[in-house]
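Q: I'm writing up a methods section and want to include an example of the input and output format. Could you take the sequence below and give the corresponding predicted structure tokens, formatted cleanly so I can copy it straight into the document?
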Amino acid sequence: MIDRMQAFAQEELSQIHDASMEILVDTGLRFNSSDALEIFQKHGFRTDGTRVFINENDVRSALETVPSRFTLRARNTAHNVTIGEDDFVFLPTGGAPNVVTYTGERRPATLEDYHTCCQLVQTSDQLDMNGWLMVQPTDIPFHVAHLDMLYANMVMCDKAYVGAATTRKAVIDCLDMAAIAWGGKENLKLQPVMATIVNSMSPLKYTAEEADSIIEMARWGQPLVITNLVMAGTSGPVSLPGLLAMANAEILAGLVLVQLVGPGTPVVYGSISAPADMKTVVSAVGAPEAVVLASAVIQLARYYHLPCRTGGMLTNAHCPDAQAAAEGTLMMSTAVRNGANFIFHSCGQLGSYISMSFEKWLLDEEVCRTLRRILTVMQITVESIDLETIKSVGSDGNYLIHPTTFNHCRNLYRPKLFTRDDYQNWHESGAKSVSEVAAEMLPKRLSEYTEPPIDDGLEQALSEFVSRRKKQLF
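A: Here is the clean output for your methods example:
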């Protein structure tokens, strides 16, 4: 099979690995957490102030205990997901403080928008998991917002979800709420129930909050998605090979900390690195270099036999237009075809993470649906070739009314949003753009939502926990 995207030779991946090792040994990483430093020192790592130095043996030992594949349990076990090797999951966008309409009007996000996101996740036939911080609600205090979002994740949706890592307190609350749902913290060690995204701060450091989040989650065996967003030319080298070496060093350092705290804790290797636009200094997530970096990151994860996280429908566009579709689909198709396992921002992302769009969410689901169909294996058999039908129709007949067409035509993919009408029918139906179609479909989609079943005692216990914690935090 020919694939014109660059596939690194083993020696090229080894060269990146060796460069990363040199960075870890000679330069080290800063961990601005006293607990993290204590853990490294306890295990004999050389430190200098907040800087930790990690050698090849440390990395190899940590990699030996990380599973290449793991299952994440959902409240509804029918929604359990497996991540790693050939198994992958689609997740919604995250982190947006704004919501944009399909016409490009922007407003601050609210908790109601977060609830809408949960409803869309629950009713989605494409999103395998709920996310975290799909929008950042601006109408509730930041220091308690995680409680309302976690409650919504666990009650409004019964799919597996992403845990909170905004602060150490949020992580502890997240674990306590999971313990309520799964019968105590000790049960969390028996089965991962949430994956938490932790980001290094490039270049070459972890904040106290991120390092402490790693420690708390790893103590209870909950998967960590160790991620960075290195911006070529600002927070990292403008040279893409140099960026990969530095980004790899950051991820491996976080992985080592995870395994020191909780050996065997699943780790997803992740990066959404991209060039910095030298004119605007924003992260050019829709740039071709970002797509190339995603492919390289997936190959590095495979080199280490680790599950991989990348971005999905990423774009710098500010509304769901042709730019958003083009940039997002190029990234998403690369992530899916190259073998990413944990594809965040599969639906809804806009403006280099500054916004999200519900209409784009539905459009992106159509792309996800199309990609899954593209990946469907074509079964080449005597029956599927069906020479008998070809011979019987010959050169004078047609297949439109043939029984095999009636029997199998529904196996062909039909889009839910994209049009296949001829021009006249499309024009007579209002000549609507696909964004307008999505805007019309959104209310109907939300009307189909019903809250999934939940034990009354569990819902009450979670509600009481949230109320109690809010009183303590105010």
